[in-house]
Amino acid sequence: MSERWAVFGGVYSNHVALAALLEDAARRGAGRLVCLGDIGAFGPYPDLSCELLRDSGALVIQGNYDDSVGRGLPDCQCGYTDPRDNHFARLSYAYTLARTSETHRAWMRTLPPMQRLEVNGRHVLMVHGSPRRQNEFLWESATPDGFLVHLLDAWRAGVLLCTHTGLHWGRRLPGGRCVINVGAIGRPANDGRTCVWYAMVDFSGPETRWEFIPLDYDWPRLVHGMRADGLPEEFVQTIETGWWTTCLEILPIRERMAGRY
Ligand SMILES: [Fe+2]
């Protein structure tokens, strides 16, 4: 098996981007597919993403959204505090919960919140938010090296793969260790571009290498489905423009200033 992995998260029911990713990763010779969770939210027809993902053979880690949908919890555990963010989070969650079949909800309940693999002598830890909490945000600007080293030490890992923030970043740490937040394939990275992002992580050499891949996909097709199923125009606008219009209050100042709103 190739030691180059395609690692992605935050599918957010973007089945069009997920299908494009599966093709792109195969073309790049990925030896393993890893999904770090949050299969639903924002997008239309959540069962389509579940079906694609389950057929793909990907290793899937449970995200906070998957835990909530699987168990039918009252909310998505996204941790918003702003009333406007909560309004949209509730709309998105109610839609996704109602439209996810019991078969897929049962599958979500079986997903592990954390997975560990040894690759080429490296301990690779895969989580959704952070090892200590499924819905902890590891933002690039707000997460000091010392805290990352503490997490790696505490969970005896050399490589930490995470998502949950929707914004990709990676950091190399002393001793050849690293933390890679793979971003999201479900919506753009609040940068005014319509592409979405995932990571190719290469464990084959003496040090772990990664590359963030901008993924172009047929976003007008996704938008058509969102409008056909009555999802909010605010969500559509993000897909069309590449700028986040909701879930903004949780962003640290640097990430917030990088966006339009
Ligand atoms: Fe999440």
Q: Can you walk through the features of this model?
A:
- This protein has 261 residues and is α/β, with parallel strands linked by helices.
- The protein has a domain at 4-113 and 182-251: Metallo-dependent phosphatases (Purple Acid Phosphatase, chain A, domain 2), CATH 3.60.21.
- 36% of the residues lie in helices and 20% in strands.
- The chain has 9 helices and 10 strands.
- The protein has a 5-stranded mixed β-sheet with strand order 3-2-1-9-10.
- The protein is globular and about 50 Å long.
- The mean pLDDT is 96.
- The structure holds fe (ii) ion (FE2).
- Fe (ii) ion binds at residues 38, 63-65, 128, 135, 164.
Write a concise keyword list for the protein shown above.
261 residues, alpha/beta, Purple Acid Phosphatase, chain A, domain 2, five-stranded mixed β-sheet, 9 helices, 20% strand, binds fe (ii) ion
Helix-strand blueprint:
Elements: E1 4-8, H1 15-27, E2 32-35, H2 46-56, E3 59-60, H3 64-71, H4 83-99, H5 102-110, E4 114-119, E5 122-127, H6 145-154, E6 159-162, E7 169-173, E8 177-181, E9 196-202, E10 209-215, H7 219-228, H8 233-241, H9 253-258
Parallel strand pairs: 1-2, 2-3, 5-6, 6-8
Antiparallel strand pairs: 1-9, 4-5, 7-8, 9-10
Helix pairs in contact: 1-2, 3-5, 7-8
Fe (ii) ion binds at residues 38, 63-65, 128, 135, 164.
Quick take:
With 261 residues, the protein is α/β, with parallel strands linked by helices. 36% of the residues lie in helices and 20% in strands. It is built from 9 helices and 10 strands.
End-to-end separation in angstroms reads: 44 Å
Tell me the strand percentage band: 15-25%
What is the makeup of the main sheet? 5 strands, mixed
The whole-angstrom Rg is: 17 Å
Name of the CATH superfamily of the domain at 4-113 and 182-251: Metallo-dependent phosphatases
Structural class: alpha/beta
